[in-house]
Amino acid sequence: MKRIGILGYPLSHSISPEFQQAALYHHEIKATFHRWEVTADDLNSFFETIRDSNFIGASVTIPYKEKCLDLVDEITESARLIGAINCIVNRDNVLVGHNTDGSGFIRALKTKYGFEPSDKKVLIIGAGGAAKAIAYSLIQEGISQLTIANRTITRAEELAQRLERNGLKINSIKLDKQTLVAPLSNVDLIVNTTSIGMKNGPDPQHSPIPPDLIPQNAIINDIVYNPIETPLIKAAKLKQAPTIGGLDMLVYQGVEAFELWTKTLAPETIMYDAAQKALRS
Ligand code: NAP
């Protein structure tokens, strides 16, 4: 039997198996989507066991997105620039690492919401792994302005420096109420990439932006997907601002991965519905 799976540790929270298996069933592809919960000590030997013709590929999640860069045979140019992979494709026994986090984020924005990033002003809250992939992809799309706000300012500065090699001047600021006032007053898209608001995360009850500062005319995109409606999304809805939840990015990074593995158009709606059902159960 052909195999695909998700690699990470721990994996109990992951809903990728549910929505990827739904897509495989839909296209009658005879493959099983596995949960590969592998400890750091077993990671190298795991890579030896997957190398055969029945292995189609894998999603890679926390904490291995960076570690796996060295364990695959090739990486794409965008994965190299982002510095992480979240998808492995077995191309005739050559394991190729891709990054579909950023491209999936962009595809959700464009196809589901009709938002074209080109020439737009963007504020990204957070400077971790997800921020890196999203910022890189937005810059590739030709945004005109980027501010990165983070609790640890040095991390925002480091990310800005790394990304500025792509040509755009980036403003890095500390994440606090005072410094957010100016960037929030003139922005088209705000993306929360911190874990603030995440169930069982460091600060599940709060919004990363004080609710009274949320602008009405910018799109508020929270990539946290559990809960589906985070404190930020709830606060933005109260302000009647347009919102995008994290489930879209999660599903669309999976849509892109599915298409790389199977070379078949992914059933986006079926995957989204299966993901929503899995999260609610
Ligand atoms: P990460 O690399 O660990 O980065 C975490 C970020 O959150 C950092 O900027 C960190 O700031 C900030 N942060 C954490 N706790 C905070 C707090 N109490 N107050 C202020 N800032 C805080 O994690 P990641 O991989 O980027 O993931 C971040 C979030 O995105 C997670 O909730 C994850 O589930 C979600 N995510 C969603 C998708 C999707 O497909 N929808 C994909 C990837 C990630 P410091 O630098 O100051 O520590």
Taken as a percent bin, the fraction of beta residues is 15-25%
Count of DSSP-assigned helices: 10
Span between termini = 28 Å
Heterogens: NADP nicotinamide-adenine-dinucleotide phosphate
Number of E-type strands: 12
Which sequence of strands runs across the widest sheet? 2-1-3-5-6-4
| Overall geometric form | globular
Report the radius of gyration as a whole number of Å.
19 Å
Order of helix and strand elements from N to C terminus: EHEHEEHEEHEHEHEHEEHEHH
What can be said about the biggest beta sheet?
6 strands, mixed
- DSSP helix fraction: 25-40%
Mean pLDDT, rounded to whole units?
Answer: 96
Features:
globular, six-stranded parallel β-sheet, six-stranded mixed β-sheet, binds NADP nicotinamide-adenine-dinucleotide phosphate, alpha/beta
Please give a structural write-up.
The protein has 281 residues and is of the alpha/beta class. Helices cover 38% and strands 21% of the residues. It has ten helices and twelve strands. It has helices spanning 16-26, 43-50, 77-82, 101-113, 129-140, 153-164, 177-184, 231-238, 246-262, 268-280; strands spanning 2-8, 31-37, 55-60, 74-75, 87-91, 94-98, 121-125, 145-150, 170-174, 189-192, 219-222, 243-244. The protein has a six-stranded mixed sheet. Strands 9-8-7-10-11-12 form a six-stranded parallel sheet, with helices on both faces. The longest helix has 17 residues, at 246-262. The chain is globular. It starts with a strand and ends with a helix. NADP nicotinamide-adenine-dinucleotide phosphate binds at residues 101, 126-131, 150-152, 155, 193-196, 198, 201-203, 223-225, 246, 249-250, 253.
